[in-house]
Amino acid sequence: MVDFADVTPRLSQLAIELPSWAFGNSGTRFKVFGTPGTPRTVQEKIADAATVHRFTGLAPTVALHIPWDTVDDFGALRAHAEEQGVALGTINSNTFQDDDFKLGSLTHSDPKVRRKAVDHHLACIEVMNETGSRDLKIWLADGTNYPGQGDIRARQEWLAEGLADICAQLSGDQRLVLEYKFFEPAFYHTDVPDWGTSYAHCVALGERAVVCLDTGHHAPGTNIEFIVAQLLRLGKLGSFDFNSRFYADDDLIVGAADPFQLFRILVEVVRGGGYGPGSDVALMLDQCHNIEQRIPGQIRSVLNVQEMTARALLLDTEALDAARTAGDVLLAHEIFTDAFYTDVRRDLADWRESRGLPADPMRAYLASGYQKQIEADRVGGRQAGWN
Ligand code: PSV
Ligand code: MN
Questions:
Q1: Minimal CA–CA distance to 259: which of 212, 312, 220?
Q2: Alpha carbons 26 and 9: distance in angstroms, whole number
């Protein structure tokens, strides 16, 4: 068994990017519940994200969604984030809320609409140049609802052309990160439904293009850790959007629905070199807190990832290799599950304290008075949401 003290140097390398939209109102198509203290501006979202980082030491960057987080001066927003102790991270494009994109954006049959979709991404690259962001994350709502509705083959060609135009404008260490999702909002076909399609486009685009794996974007029963292993092997895993799901793209707290799946994924991340300073894989959350409080929801999420990362690092890979080599199926499985079942919470609490962090970030946040303060301060204005 590996000792907890042996993994702490690697554990301190963990950095998780928070989504700005997790702090605004969200809901289902049935109801969006507003709550006191919800940010009205992107600056307030960043302040909340920075609070999560202050209590956990785990979340040094915040992802923005454009146009939800558009401001006149992104340089000033960058300075604001830095003052709060965090940096701006991934820029997410959004072509899913404009009427012109009802029948597709980069895959629309009308070249003028495709041009508009490309231009939106070029504007996002301008934002990245000001925020210092590395990644442009593209998720498209493009697809069709009925067989025959669209030319699914032609749409792939248009998609390839649009992505190439966007990619050509990236510079320095900037990357295009292409996210896939097998359904929703389109229900018959989606233009980037799976890792294979995303991978095929990324290979054609070259070195700058990598795949984003959102854990909620697969059919039930999909072996996600296999996809992780494969993409890492191919050098094309760019980032994760972590969340958890029971049924569809539920966007629930990571590790809540299936902690063992999160463990299996993180084992493959570590195994494939996707963890730590030598790796370019970005670990992000993409979640919504529809009924629970959002800041504690994000704290719980990053702590879940931390706990599971610790357990993945505790896996005794030498013993596992030996068991595998000996063909001892049950021993190999036992070694694997031993790491998963190791309760690291006490060790993590002590370790946090030794680094000047609260032993229990959740309780420390709840006792801090931050929530009361934002509820008192954030009166008037329009609460942020998916608009
Ligand atoms: C789409 O379901 C998605 O996962 C994309 O990453 C979007 O940007 C995000 O959700 C919005 O929450
Ligand atoms: Mn996502």
A1: 312
A2: 37
| Tokens found for residue 64 | 């923005």
Is the distance from the beta carbon of residue 241 to the nearest atom of ligand 1 less than 6 Å?
A: yes
Residue nearest to atom 5 of ligand 1 (CA): 139
Q: Looking at the 3D structure of the chain, how many domains does it have?
A: 1
- Ligand 1 in reach of 92 Cβ (< 6 A): yes
Residues 6+ apart with CB under 8 A from 218: 182, 224, 227
Beta bridge partners of 178: 138, 211
Instruction: Identify the CATH number of the domain in which residue 83 sits.
Output: 3.20.20.150
> Whole domain around residue 141: which residue ranges?
14-315
The answer to the question of residue 40 being in a domain is yes
Element at 330 (helix H, strand E): helix 329-341
Give the separation between CA 283 and CA 8, rounded to whole angstroms. 18
The one-letter amino acid at 20: S
Q: Which ligand is nearest to the CA of 289?
A: 1
Nearest residue by C-alpha to atom 9 in ligand 1: 286
DSSP label of 252: B
Give CA–CA dist 228/234, Å, rounded: 10
Residue whose CA is closest, atom 7 of ligand 1? 139
Q: Is 346 within the bounds of a domain?
A: no
Q: Which atom of ligand 1 approaches the CA of 212 most closely?
A: 6
Q: For residue 319, how far is its CA from the centre of ligand 2 (angstroms)?
A: 36
Q: Is ligand 1 within 6 A of the CB of residue 142? A: no
For the chain, 387 residues long, the average pLDDT of each consecutive 10-residue run is 94 98 96 95 98 98 98 98 98 98 98 98 98 98 98 98 98 98 98 98 98 98 98 98 97 98 98 96 98 98 98 98 98 98 98 98 98 97 92
Does residue 99 belong to any structural domain of this protein? Answer: yes
CA of 176 to the centre of ligand 1 (A): 15
Tens-place pLDDT, residues 59-110 = 999 999 999 999 999 999 999 999 999 999 999 999 999 999 999 999 999 9
Atom of ligand 1 nearest to the CA of 243: 4
- Quick check: is 341 in a domain? no
Q: Pick the residue whose CA is nearest to atom 12 on ligand 1.
A: 286
- Copy the structure tokens of residue 353: 């304290």
Does the Cβ of 286 fall within 6 Å of ligand 1?
A: yes
What pTM, to 2 d.p., does this model score?
A: 0.98
Centroid of ligand 1 to alpha carbon of 50 (angstroms): 21
